[in-house]
Amino acid sequence: MGDYIEKHITAVFLTVVVITVSMAVVVVWKINIVQRQTGVISSQINKIITISEIKENVLLQIGAMNNYVLTGEPDYLNKFNEYTEKNNHMQTALIREIRESRKPLAGQLHQTYTDYISYCDKVVNPFVKVNVRVPEDILNEIGQKQNKLTELSTQIQELRRADTISVLGDIVISSQNASKTSQYFALLGLVLGVSLSITLGPKFIRNHKIKNSILNTTRNITITIDDKGIITSINRTAEAFFQNSKELLLKKNYQDIIGIGKMIDMELPINKIVNSGIGVCNLERVYNFGDGWKSVLNVDCLPMSERTPCGVLIVARDISERKILEEKLYAMTLRDSLTNLYNHAYLKRRLKEEILKDKDNSQSLSYILLDIDDFKFYNDRFGHQAGDALLNEFAKLLKKCVRGNDVVGRYGGDEFAVILPKAGRSTALMLAERIRSTVEKHPFNNKMLVPGNNITVSIGVAVYPDDACEGEELIKLADEAMYRCKQNQKNGVQLYFSALKEFQKELKESEKTMYNSVKMLLGIINSKDRDTYLHLEKVAEYVEIICSRMNLDENMKKDIKIAAFLHDLGKIEIPRTILHKTEQISKEEWSIIRQHPKWGASMLRSMQQMDSIIPLILHHHERYDGNGYPKGLKGEDIPLGARIIAVADSFDAMTTLRPYRKPKSIADAIEEIVINSGTQFDPQVAGLFVKNYSASCGVQII
C-alpha cells in the first residue's frame, strides 16, 4: 500500500512536473513570439519613418525646383541637389530592406525619381540658367512627373502602413493568448511562477520598455482606448500636441475627453469602430488651438482586435506643413507662370462654375476675350524679354480695370480673358471700354514704334444666357466677336451679334427647314474659311439696314437676307492660298475668283427652295453701269436683291482687314459708296444705306 501511494505520489509529481514543464515551454514560446513581433513592429515603424522622410524630401525637392523655375535663384537649385543626394541614399536602403513583394514598387519609385532628376538637369535647368522662360509643354511634363512621384511615394507609404497595422494586430492577439495560457496554469505551481518571474521577467520588462519607447519616441500621436471606451494610454507626442498631461486623460471615458467642444476638440468615429471592428484611415481633421492657431491632422482609427466590441488605437500625424506645400503646388497649377494670372484650364473650369451659380440665381454673366493688337510685331521687333515685360504690365493694368469679384486670366499667348459674374451687356460693355481706353492711354515702352504708333487691344464680349448657355459656346462666341473686331479697325470693343440668329426669329415654323439648310451651309463655309463666314454675317447685318427702309414684300426680304448669308458660297471652291494671298493677285488667280458667283449658284440648284435666291447670288457682282460680272447686266436688269447685296458686300470689304491691305475708316468707306453711286451701285440703294448707316455711326455726309 505504501509502495502504491509512493508510486502514485511519484506519478502525480511527475505528471505535475511534465505539465509544469510543458506549460513553461508554452509560456516561453508565447512570450518569445511577442518579443519577436515587437522587434518586427519596431522595424516596421522605422521603415514607415524612412518612407515618410523620402516623401517629405520629394515634396520639398519639388518645391525647390518649382521655386528655381519661377525665380532663377541658385539657392533653390542647391537645395534641390541636396535632397537628391539624401533621397538616393534612403531609396537604395529601402529597396534593400523592404519585403520582396514591395520591391518592384520601391524600384519603380526609384526609377521614376531618377528620371525626374535627369529631366530637370538636362531639360529644365538649361533654360533657367540662361534666364529664359521654360516653355509651357516642358512645365506640363515636369508637373506630370512630379504628380507621378507624389503618387508612388504615397502608395508605398500606404502599403507599409497596412503591413504595420497587420503586425500590430498579431502582437495584440499573441499577447492575449499568452495571458490566457498563463491564467490556466497559474494554479499548477508557485515554483513555476517564481521560476518564470526570475528567468523571463526581465525579458518581458525589457520588451515592455521597448514598446513604450517606440510609442514615446515616434513623432505620431498615439492614444489607445479599451473596448469599454476607457483611455488606457497616451504618448508624449499626444501630450505635447494637445497640451494636456496624461494624468488628466488616462482612465477617463473617451466621450468625456474627445469630441467637439471637449478637451481634445476633434470628432472621431470611435464608437462605430468599437462596435464594428472596422477601422477608418486617412481622416483629415483641423485642430483648433485656444490661441487661434490651427493644425491639420491625418488620423487613423484602428481596431485593436478582431472581436467586437474591441479597443481602438488612434494614430495621428500633423500634416500642416505638407498641406501648405500641397496648396502652394496646387496653386501653381492654376496660375500662368509669367503673369501669375489664372491660366486657361482654370478659366474654363471657373466659367462653368459661375454659369451654374448664375443659372440657379437667374442672373446674367459676361465673358470678355482680349487680344493685344500687333503683339507679334512687338515681340519680333524688340525681343521676347520685352514681349514678356509687356504681357506682365498688361496683366497688372487689366486687373486694375475690373471689379473685385471678376476673374482675370491669361488665355494663352497675347490673349487674356475676364469672367464677369452678375454682369449683363451694359456692364460688360462699360468694363470692356474702360479696359480699351486705359490700355490705349497707358505709356507702354516702345509704343510709338509699333503699327498705329500705339499699343491697343481688341475686345470681344459674349453674354450668358443671351448668346449661349454653355461655357464652351460662350468662349467661342466671345472669340468670334474679338476676331471680328480685329478684322475691322482693331482697338475696339465688339459685342457678339449673330445676324443668322436674329433672322431665325423672323421665320415661321414651316420655314425652319430653309433655316437649317442655310445654317448647315454656313457651317461648311466657316470650317473652310472663318474670314468668309464673318463677312457673310456682317453683309447680312448691313442688308437688314437697307431692307428695313424699303417697302418690300416680306418674302422678298427673306430671300434677300438668305442670299446675303450665302452670296459667297462659291468661295469654298477657291484655294485658301488664293483667298489669303498677301501679294498682288495674278490674272489667272483673278479669273478663278470671278467664278465664285457661278459656283455658288450651281451648288444651290439641287435645292428647290433656293430657286428664288439663286439669281441674287449669281448677280451680286454686277455693276449698275454694266461693267460687272458674270453677265454684264446693267441698271434695273440686275435683280434688286443683288443690287442691295452689292452695296453691303462692298462696304464690309472696304472696312475689313484683308491680307493685302489695311481697312478703310467708316467715313472713307461711306465716301467711296457715295462716289460710286450710279456707276458701281444702284443710287437709290446706296443713298438709303449711306443715310441710315451714317446716322447710326454719327458720320457726317458732306
Terminal Cα separation, in Å? Answer: 153 Å
If classified by CATH, what would the architecture of the largest domain be? Up-down Bundle
Number of strands: 10
CATH topology of the largest domain: Four Helix Bundle (Hemerythrin (Met), subunit A)
Number of helices: 26
Characterize the structure shown.
With 702 residues, the protein is α+β, with helices and mostly antiparallel strands. It folds into four domains: 2-203, Four Helix Bundle (Hemerythrin (Met), subunit A) (Up-down Bundle), CATH 1.20.120; 219-326, PAS domain (Beta-Lactamase, 2-Layer Sandwich), CATH 3.30.450; 336-497, 2-Layer Sandwich (Alpha-Beta Plaits); 507-702, Orthogonal Bundle (Hypothetical protein af1432), CATH 1.10.3210. The chain is 62% helix and 10% strand. The protein has 26 helices and ten strands. It has helices at 2-71, 74-97, 103-129, 136-184, 190-217, 236-242, 246-249, 254-257, 270-276, 320-334, 344-361, 375-382, 384-401, 425-441, 471-487, 499-506, 512-528, 530-547, 554-566, 576-579, 587-593, 596-604, 614-618, 640-655, 666-675, 683-697; strands spanning 221-225, 231-234, 280-288, 294-303, 312-318, 365-372, 407-412, 415-421, 457-464, 493-495. The chain has a five-stranded antiparallel beta sheet with strand order 2-1-5-4-3. It has a five-stranded mixed beta sheet with strand order 7-8-6-9-10, sandwiched between helices. Strand 1 (221-225) and strand 2 form a beta hairpin. Helix 1 (2-71) packs parallel to helix 5, helix 19 packs across helix 24 and helix 24 (640-655) packs antiparallel against helix 25 (666-675). It is elongated and about 130 Å long. Mean pLDDT is 83; it is low at 1-13.
